[in-house]
Structure formats: C-alpha cells, structure tokens
Amino acid sequence: MSEPAYQVDLTSCDREPIHQLGHIQSFGAMLLVSSDNLIAHYSANAAEFLGLSEVGQGVRLDDLLPPDTLQALQIATRGLSDPDDTERLFGLAVGDDPATRFDCSVHRSAGQLVLEFERHDAAGFGNHIASIRPMMSGLDSIEGIDDLCHAAAQRLKSLLEFDRVMVYRFHSDGSGEVIAEAREREVDSYSGLRYPKSDIPQQARALYLRNRLRIIANVNDTPVPVEPGKQFGGEPIDLSLSTLRSVSPIHIEYLRNMGVRASLSISIIIGGKLWGLFACHHYGPKLLPYSQRTAAELFSEFFSLTLDRTLARQTAERREHGRAMHTQLMRDVAAGTPLSASPTPWLAPP
Predict the structure, then answer these.
(1) Tens digit of pLDDT for each residue in 111-163?
(2) Spatial separation of the C-alpha atoms in residues 103 and 316, rounded to whole Å
(3) Which pairing describes strands 273-282 and 262-270: parallel, antiparallel, or unpaired?
(4) How many angstroms separate the CA atoms of 91 and 291, rounded?
(5) pTM greater than 0.70
(6) Which of 14, 169, 203, 308 has a CA 20 to 30 Å removed from the CA of 249?
(7) Which residue, 194, 131, 163, 167, is CA-closest to 263?
(8) Of residues 305, 289, 302, the one with CA closest to residue 243
C-alpha cells in the first residue's frame, strides 16, 4: 500500500483529508460510474468480491450487472435529489452465482454514481428490520434526558451486541462528555468522562452531519485502494458519503491504544446541528450487516426526534418557571414585602 502524500500527526489532525484517503475497508467493494454509464473508478477487490470476470475503467455497467439489478439501481438513482442523499438496496444479484446476493448503497460524488456493495445477510435481514419498532416503543414516554439516553444506549446495545455503547454529548465549547453507557460487566466504564474539543476533529464532525453512520469493522484491516486513485483532472476522490471509506491512521492508532478492535458511531442531530453521538466499542473485530446498521441508523433518527421534543419541553418548562418567579417577585415588591421574607421554594428550578 502506497504511503499518503501528506504527513499527519497529532498536531495536524484537524487538517487531515479523511474523506479523500483513496481506500475502502475490505468488507465491501466499490464502483464509481460516470454519467455515460462507464466505470470510472473501482476498488481493487471489485472483481473478486462481486464474482465478476472483469472490472476495469471504461467497462460499461450494463455489461457487468444483470438487468433486474440495473433496473433497481436506475430507480434508486432517481431518488438522489439532494447532494447528500443515499439510497439503499438489499439482496441484489451481481455476479455469476445467483445464490450470492449483495446489499448496495447508492449516492453521488462529483457527478459520478457511487455504488458500494456488501454481502447480503439473508438470515438476519428480517430480524433486523423487525427490531426497529420494539426498539422505539415507549421511548417517547421517558421524560428526563439522562433516563432517555440510558434507555437508548441499552436498546442499541441489545440490537448491536457491542461490548460498550455510549451516548457522547457535545458541549457548547466543543468538548464532549459520556452521559450514558451500556456495557459488558468486564468492560471498564467511561461514564462521566470528559474529552477535549480536539478528540473529534472539526472535519470529522462535519462528516457526521452529512453521513450519520460510521463503521470500522477491524482496526487491523488492510485497506483496499480505489483505482485509478485520482479523478481525470487530478483531484482526489471524495468519499465523504461512503459507508466503506477507509480510516484515518491517527484514529486507528487511537483505537488500538484503547484496545478497541471495532467501532461504530451514529450521529445524534438536533435542529440540523450535531448534538452528540452513539459511540460503540468492541474488543474484537465486528462486522455488522448493512441491514442491521440501517436499523441502528433509523433508531438514531427516531431517538433524535424524541430527544428534540424532550429538550423543547424542558426549555418551555424553564421559561414558564421563570415567568412564575418574575410574577411572584413583582407581587412581593408591590406589596412591600422584603425579599428576605418572600417564600423561597420558587427559587429552585423545576
């Protein structure tokens, strides 16, 4: 594997182009298709992974994939109306073996269609999709933020079976805090730990807003290059929305130092801003099927909506309490009651 043309260390990680690393993780394969339906770029493992005889630059996509799969991709492509839209397809036929099926993520990058393939988990697919409703059930009836976050962490851990699932909240100064946690007994607790703003670089936070879910299946994985490695004009390939995108060497070293071998991060977005993350750690390699990750992502979106309503309700309650305090104070002043003699229970917030 060639060395990157840039040098990154702990003092420059804010400037690392983590969306332009030019590699993907090996549990999938990638095809980038031009507007005239020709393969423009492909991961080096594409032919072997997909069971195709030949994958190369300039090959027509119509010559690679079965008609039913091509039709499904065409329909999915019509749904990409926003630059950050992603469509998902499950159980597609690709290679010569009809029994081997693939899940596919579809998005656009620099005018090209990006197709990312992973092996389809037929056995677990129905269970993963069916798990969404019970995970959401009753969540909106939990009133306190802490209780809500703890319940969400427990439910997500049950779905994903990671060793640790945390709710990581960003503070106004950019620092972060673990405010809820569900973990195995033998795993150390991170609950209450605070982290500096630099723990999650700014460009990583920007990507969390565009791409809700980030998986690292194995920190010891050998990344697969995307070929050719540059666009026709010499620009790097933008993999911001990629589910397979390879990982920053600095972040890999960070996880290894903690003993973590696999991770999953899911964005918690409130009012268009990154409120926090579900941060999941596992102490061995762990590849989640695409359908299971989709269920987790949908749960995160529902949790974000529920959290938003809870925060809004708390804000309204504080505002109403403030009005009550002001009214009581004005009454006491008008009556000539000394402040020291005013009843004090209203001083405490609800």
Answers:
(1) 899 999 999 998 888 788 788 888 888 888 888 899 999 999 999 999 999 99
(2) 44
(3) antiparallel
(4) 10
(5) yes
(6) 169
(7) 163
(8) 289
